[in-house]
């Protein structure tokens, strides 16, 4: 299996990484089977988070006997040093291990630094000294925080959204990580469900300029796993057909299309902007049932409560008129229902 060197960590991970968020939605038995199948077919990198309910526990159940043969990253959304230690102890327990290869700050709104008032980075350094974590990483959806983290030189890995729909500014983050010799872990390689052609997504990531990029694919079903494993045996090439697919998606998903990045959040009216502002696309490009559930109907209804404060609009890096986009998506949603 093709390997990726994760920057200065010197860890060698499989080009196909396993994103373990979706295994929350399947039983423990199914999850253990899926994880072990992935491992025995060459996937050696698994990414989870304290916030993904029982995902860590399922990884622990699958790999307690093979722990030293694989690389695990998890995340903490702690806001204080006290929460950090609590999360770390819990993750070690659930994962049935005494160390975590990459411990990441989970999408913080700021870049934790030594000596800051939260004490988060100092706690991570101490945990590293104690051998509980091997490398310190950060995940983010915000361009400014990502750039600050890279410039700080404090982090060994960056996890950031990246797919063939990435904007120039996102591609710049990938390049900056390469220059800084930081591992780049790509989340949302299928753009949160908007990209359907996984072969095109894989071929895009496999290009030589992205040799340092380690995508983690969110996997819930065996057929999804089989798809990615098949690309190791028969790697899809970015030839005419797949390139046309990418060009078509880029064309269709341009203009006032919401990337789902979440830079504009939180919203004071509690609107889940990163999904609600692209609902029309999700309904047409992803299985519809889940988006039409009573839970999602209630989330969409919150758009009625938009106060037009324009906070989101000011923060959107793509220059979108977010409140207008939300209204448009809500109208379409009601018609669709
Ligand atoms: S304009 Fe509406 S959607 Fe945007 S932040 Fe304000 S309340 Fe939320
Ligand atoms: S509206 Fe803009 S900032 Fe908000 S999720 Fe969509 S693309 Fe990102």
Order of helices and strands: EEEHEHEHEHEHEHEHEHHHHHHH
Kindly, what is the distance between the CA atoms of the first and last residues, rounded to a whole number of angstroms? 45 Å
The set of bound ligands, ions and cofactors reads: iron/sulfur cluster
Supply the number of helical segments.
Answer: 14
How much helix, percentage-wise, in residues? 40-55%
Assembly context of the chains: single chain
Shape: globular
Number of strands: 10
* Total domains: 2
Structure described in brief:
This protein is α/β, with parallel strands linked by helices and 337 residues long.
Structure description:
- The chain is an alpha/beta fold.
- The strands form two sheets. It has an eight-stranded parallel barrel with strand order 3-4-5-6-7-8-9-10, surrounded by five helices.
- The mean pLDDT is 94.
- The chain has two domains: 3-246, TIM Barrel (Alpha-Beta Barrel), CATH 3.20.20.100; 273-336, no CATH class.
- It is built from 14 helices and ten strands.
- The longest helix has 15 residues, at 322-336.
- The protein is globular, with a radius of gyration of 20 Å.
- The chain binds iron/sulfur cluster (SF4) (2 copies).
- InterPro entries: 4Fe4S_Fe_S_CS, AKR, AKR2_Oxidoreductase, NAD(P)_OxRdtase_dom_sf, NADP_OxRdtase_dom.
- Keywords: Iron, Iron-sulfur, Metal-binding.
Tags for this model:
iron-sulfur cluster binding; 2 domains; TIM Barrel; 337 residues; two-stranded antiparallel sheet; 42% helix; alpha/beta; Aldo/keto reductase; binds iron/sulfur cluster; eight-stranded parallel beta barrel
């Amino acid at each position: 299996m093709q390997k990726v060197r994760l920057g200065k960590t010197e860890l060698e991970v499989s080009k196909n990484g396993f994103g373990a968020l979706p295994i929350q939605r399947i039983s423990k038995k199914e999850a253990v089977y899926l994880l072990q199948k992935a491992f025995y077919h060459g996937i050696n990198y698994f990414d989870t988070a304290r916030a993904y309910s029982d995902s860590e526990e399922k990884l622990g159940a699958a790999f307690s006997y093979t722990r030293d043969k694989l690389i695990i990253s998890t995340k903490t959304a702690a806001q204080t040093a006290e929460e950090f230690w609590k999360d770390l102890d819990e993750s070690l327990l659930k994962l049935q291990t005494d160390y975590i290869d990459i411990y990441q700050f989970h999408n913080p709104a700021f870049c934790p630094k030594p000596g800051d008032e939260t004490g988060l980075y100092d706690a991570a350094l101490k945990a590293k000294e104690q051998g509980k974590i091997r490398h310190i990483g950060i995940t983010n959806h915000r361009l400014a925080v990502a750039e600050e983290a890279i410039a700080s030189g404090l982090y060994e890995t960056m996890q950031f959204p990246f797919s063939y729909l990435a904007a120039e500014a996102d591609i710049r983050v990938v390049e900056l990580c390469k220059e800084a010799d930081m591992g780049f872990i790509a989340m949302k390689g299928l753009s949160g469900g908007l990209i359907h052609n996984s072969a095109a997504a894989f071929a895009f990531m496999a290009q030589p300029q992205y040799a340092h990029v380690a995508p983690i694919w969110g996997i819930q079903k065996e057929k999804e796993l089989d798809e990615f494993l098949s690309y190791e045996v028969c790697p899809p090439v970015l030839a005419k057909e797949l390139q046309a697919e990418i060009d078509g998606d880029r064309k269709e998903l341009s203009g006032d299309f919401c990337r789902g990045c979440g830079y504009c959040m939180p919203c004071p009216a509690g609107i889940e902007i990163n999904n609600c502002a692209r609902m029309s696309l999700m309904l047409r490009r992803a299985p519809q049932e889940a988006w039409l559930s009573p839970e999602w109907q209630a989330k969409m209804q919150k758009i009625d409560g938009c106060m037009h404060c324009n906070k989101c609009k000011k923060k959107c890096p793509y220059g979108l008129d977010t409140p207008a986009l939300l209204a448009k998506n809500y109208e379409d949603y009601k018609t669709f229902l």
